[in-house]
Structure formats: structure tokens, C-alpha cells
Amino acid sequence: MGSLHTPCVLTNPHSPFPTRYSPVHPMANVTLRNVRKTYLGGFEAIKGVNVDVGDGQFCVLVGPSGCGKSTLLRMVAGLETVTGGEIDIGGRVVNQVEPADRDIAMVFQNYALYPHMSVFNNMAYGLRNRGMKETEIKSRVDEAARVLELTPMLERKPRQLSGGQRQRVAMGRAIVRQPKVFLFDEPLSNLDAKLRIAMRVEIRKLQRRLNTTSIYVTHDQLEAMTLADILVVMNGGQVEQVGNPLAIYEKPATTFVASFIGAPPMNLMSTRPEEIRSQLTGGAAADAGILGIRPEDFVITDQTPAGGVALPLTVEAIERVGAETFVYGSREQEEQRVAATPGELPPGEIIVRIPGTEAPAIGAKIRVAALRAKLHLFSGDGRTRLEA
Amino acid sequence: MQKQAIFQSRLLPYALVAPQLAIVLLFFYWPALQAVIQSFLLQDAFGLSTSFVWFENYLDLFREPAYFEAILRTFFFSFAIAVSSLSFALLLAVMADKPLRGSMLYRTLLIWPYAVAPPVVGVLWIFMLHPSLGIIARYLRAIGIDWNPLLDGDQAATLIILAAAWKQISYNFLFFLAGLQSIPRSVLEAAAIDGARPMRRFWTVTFPLLSPTIFFLLVVNIVYAFFDTFGIIDTMTRGGPGKSTETLVYKVYSDGLLGGNLGSSAAQSVILMVMVIVLTGIQFRFVERKVTY
């Protein structure tokens, strides 16, 4: 098949998933009700999470490392105990149910393939454990292998496969089971950038085809945005925001979400300096402590749009990436850090994203402005979004 | 990259290797050569004359039914010691691998017996199981078992196997624990999700992944049972009652040093030496090829 080294064959138009491979699957919502996890030492890893994933939906848990997203996924899988609340899969509370009996399949970050078994046996293992007939096992594994283009590798051992192939075996092991729910624990983070994008598309297509409820953990916000039907942004064991990815992008509920979703991150600045305060008008503006503006919402202009915000900047650095250019500028006024969140800019620094490669010279004094509708206002602690 | 060291003087490398070489020559090759030479010689009962008899000592050995019995006995002992100490050590390691409180403490306790010298092991077990001194022997008789390893050959053999296996458990445990800890947790979790119950998980995932460790330990244990049990046998039964606990290595000792038949004893040593070379050769072959899974 010649698919050994070229990830692009995965998107081969002649090999899309056959109509036969669309098993009738049972209804499976996954509902987390006030789920908590407290470790023996008293450390609270999950502090009451409520999420409702509808049947066939693709839910992505995203957040910085240590935010509890993997722990939460492992709790759904049954690999970690639940110390509070309820996990409900397909209308059944599974808190006390063994992982094997939850009718889930999981793809691990390191793939967790059985090193001593052939690719075929890796995929067949879960079916054999459930006492399925060999003929049925063979047809299911062959079908999955065909879909994932693993047919020529069925007799190989995992150590004879490349990273991408191992990843596909892990996927195959999950799909042959035809479970109610797929769980993915950062399945693409061990792949190189190119393969990661190819597999991301494949996973989404496969999930659409199989229409199996899925929960996917990642720290990559781009993966999260592109895969999710429902995006759950987590931080410090809590859910910061749940919703449609674009809705979250457009209306982040907290400054954490604002700076975590979107690359480069949203510019956040204190509204205290007179320069900004004087430009903010309208009801909520008076209560706002933090102003956020996305890099792409700035325009370099001398005009000030009505109700909008304009800032004078000194250009510090320019990054040209082809289709767009990032301008790093510093504001003249010193100001204090607004919130300690990942990806945050140094105080007083602003990123402006402009199309094309035309950019002002380094050291130039420019003026950037954003429309009224593009302003995000947050309370002083960054925990509440204020609607203008 | 060349990993070779470059020496200024041509003699320095030889000088550096010399002490090690001297030790090996003096304590291994020299006695080995002596044994080979001795095995071709026959001395009269008073040690007054020595004659070169070619393979007569070997042929005599193979004509002697007692020698075959000793071979069979040694194989049986090795098998019993290796299997019992390996399986018990594996059981302990699997239990110690669980993340429990105080695991460091009992892991340490489980490793301690390895520090006990074989003759001391023998003495310890004798204190427990001696027909007139032993505390366990008392209980055994109390429940109606006619326990007397000083007279009953099978009981004596059991006693030797027990003590020798016990001694080796710590060593095996250590390797099994390390082996278990090198199995990625996620593989076992994947198996749990794949519907394998703990026992099935153990036999289909853990055990195959431990197979390189098991193979290594099997060879080490067999070599141990062949040779290092000498101290245990000597303190506990001295090969008796009758010849029921006389293994090949003990026969070398009793025929040579007690029986005074140096030629036969030397021939037996040479045969043992060949056995160990074969065993070690097999092990090296497999370890080098990394016969994992």
C-alpha cells in the first residue's frame, strides 16, 4: 500500500470509511454531575465539575498541564476513583463500575500497545476478553485495519511500527470494540507536527462516521478548537467555561479563557490608566477592571472608531509568517500585571496581528485601534465577563 | 566515535589488566587445569603411586548407577528449587508492587534474607525443623506427621529444597519487582479497559512482559541450585540420610575429600564445569539477542 511513510494517504479519497463501517451504537450521553476528586493527602484535583456531553458529540477538555483534565478523563474511564459527585454514561451512574464494564475505549498518550502481541492481537485482545467468536473478531479487526490502512502490518509487533502507525493501532483497538464512548488522552502529542495535523483530521472524520460519543483531552488549543463540538476549558481543577468553541472564542467568560484560547493570546490590560478609562463608555465600562482585545481585532490607523479604543505604541519587534505579520509593541505608560495566566504578555506589551507582510519599522511610533464590538470587558479579578 | 583509549606506553594496558588476569589465572584457570589433569590420574589407596589412566575415571563414573542417581537428584532439586522460589518470589513481588503505605519497609524486609550466608540458612532451618530441637517439627508431630528428616530421605530432600528456595526468594523478588515496575502502567490500564480481569491481565500481559526476567532468573536459580546449595546441604543433612540429598556438587566433595577418590572427584568437577559453561552460554546467547517478546 505504500502507506508506511506518507501520512497523507490517510486522506486518500479512495479509502474513506466504507458505509458498512457504521455500527448501530447505543445511545450514550456522558454527564458529569458535580464531580470531585480529592487525594488522600487532601489535595483537591477536581473541584466540582459539571459537563453534559450529548450522544455522538465530540467533547474536548483543554487546559494547561496540571489543570486536572487527564484526571477527569481517567475518572470517566474508571482508572481513578471518584470522591464526589456522579459520572453517568448512557443513563447509568458508573462511579462504582469497573473500567471493563463501562463500555468505553481509551486511546492513551503513549498508545499503551501490548508490546508482545502482534497488531492483530492488539486489536483482538479486547474482543477475545469478551468471548467473541474468532470469525467475528477477524472480520472486525480486518475491517478496522482496512479503514486505518494497517492491513499490511497486522502480523507485526508494535516495536516494528512508526509512531504514526502505533497511533493508528491504538485507534484500531478502540474502534473494533464499538464502545459507547471513546476517550482520548492527548493521543497526538507524541507525533510530529505534520502527522499531528493529518491525524487530527482523521480522528474527526472517523468520529463523525462512527458517531460515537467522544471525550478528548489536550493542552493544544488549536486541536481543541478544531475538534470540539463542545469545548470545556479547565483551570486548577475547575471548569472555566463550557460551550461551542467559536462561541468561547468570541465571548470568553474569564480572562483565563481569553488568554488560553486563541494564538497569539488576547491582549489584556488594566482599565485603570486614564488613557484607557477615558475611552471606555457605556454601562458595564464603569465596573470593568480589565480590558481585552484580540491581536487580530486591532487595525493600524490614526482614527478612533466611535466607542472604540485607540492606543499609541512603539514597535518593538516584528514577526512575519507569510500570510500574516505580528507586531509587538509597547505602550508608553507603565502598568501593572493584570492576571497571572499562561501565555500572558509582559505588562504594557501589545500584540497586533495584521494581514500580509507589510509592517511598520522597528522603533516606529504607531497608533492601533479596535472597534467597540471587539472589546472584551472583565471584572477586576478577571473571573467575570461584563457585557457592554 | 572511537571508544578506544590511546596509551602512550605499549606496556601500560597490559600492566593495568595484569592484576585481574592474575586473579583469574590463579583462582580459576589453574584449579580448572588441575582438575582436568587430576581427572586423568588414578592414585592408589595410600597415595604412593599415581598412574595416568586417560578416561578411566570418567568411564567408571558412567558405569556407576549412583552417579546417574545423583544427576537425576540434582536436576530434580534444581527444578524444584527454581520453580518454588521463582513462583513464590513472583507472588510476593506482585503483592509488593501495589502502591501501599509502608511499601519501602516491607520491600526491604523481603530483601534481607539474601544477606544470610547459605550455611547459616541451613542452621536456621535446622533449628526450626530438627526432629528433637525444632519448634515446627514439634507442631508437625502434634498434627500426626511422622517428621524425622534425619531418617526419612524424602523429608530431608523437602527440607533442603525448602531452605534453598527460601534463601533465593529475596534475590528473585528484587528482580521481579524491578521487572514489574518497568511495565508501563498504561498498558495494564489498557488491558483493564479491554475487559481483562486481574488474573487474566496477569497471565496475558504482565507474565509475558516479565518473560525475559523469568528466563534470566531461571538460569541463575539453576546454577545456584547446582552449586550454592552446598553450604545448606552440608550443614543440614551432609548428603544423607543414605544418599538421599547428595547432589552432584556434594558428591564431588564427599567422594574426593571424604572418600579420598581424587580422580573421580576431579572428573565430576570437570563434568560440572562443562554443565555450567553450557548453561551460561545459553543465557548469554538469549540475553544478547534480547529474547524479549
TrEMBL record, chain A:
GO terms for biological process: carbohydrate transport; glycerol-3-phosphate transmembrane transport; glycerophosphodiester transmembrane transport. GO terms for molecular function: ABC-type transporter activity; ATP binding; ATP hydrolysis activity. It is found in: Cell inner membrane. Residues 30-261 form the ABC transporter domain. Pfam families: ABC_tran, TOBE_2. Its main location: membrane. The keyword Cell membrane applies. PROSITE patterns: ABC_TRANSPORTER_1 (PS00211), ABC_TRANSPORTER_2 (PS50893). Signal peptide: none annotated. It is a peripheral membrane protein. One of its GO terms (cellular component) is ATP-binding cassette (ABC) transporter complex, substrate-binding subunit-containing. Keywords: ATP-binding, Cell inner membrane, Cell membrane, Membrane, Nucleotide-binding, Sugar transport, Translocase, Transport. Involved in beta-(1-->2)glucan export. Transmembrane domains (TMD) form a pore in the inner membrane and the ATP-binding domain (NBD) is responsible for energy generation. Belongs to the ABC transporter superfamily. This is Carbohydrate ABC transporter ATP-binding protein, CUT1 family. It comes from Bradyrhizobium shewense.
UniProtKB/TrEMBL annotation, chain B:
GO terms for cellular component: plasma membrane. Residues 71-283 form the ABC transmembrane type-1 domain. Its main location: membrane. PROSITE patterns: ABC_TM1. The keyword Transmembrane helix applies. The chain crosses the membrane at residues 12-30, 75-96, 116-140, 207-227, 266-287. The keyword Lyase does not apply. It comes from the Bacteria. It is a multi-pass membrane protein. Keywords: Cell inner membrane, Cell membrane, Membrane, Transmembrane, Transmembrane helix, Transport. InterPro entries: MetI-like, MetI-like_sf, UgpAE/MalFG_permease. Gene3D superfamilies: MetI-like. It is found in: Cell inner membrane; Cell membrane. GO terms for biological process: transmembrane transport. The complex is composed of two ATP-binding proteins (UgpC), two transmembrane proteins (UgpA and UgpE) and a solute-binding protein (UgpB). Belongs to the binding-protein-dependent transport system permease family. PANTHER family: BLL4140 PROTEIN, SN-GLYCEROL-3-PHOSPHATE TRANSPORT SYSTEM PERMEASE PROTEIN UGPA. NCBIfam families: PRK10561.1. Part of the ABC transporter complex UgpBAEC involved in sn-glycerol-3-phosphate (G3P) import. Probably responsible for the translocation of the substrate across the membrane. This is sn-glycerol-3-phosphate transport system permease protein UgpA.
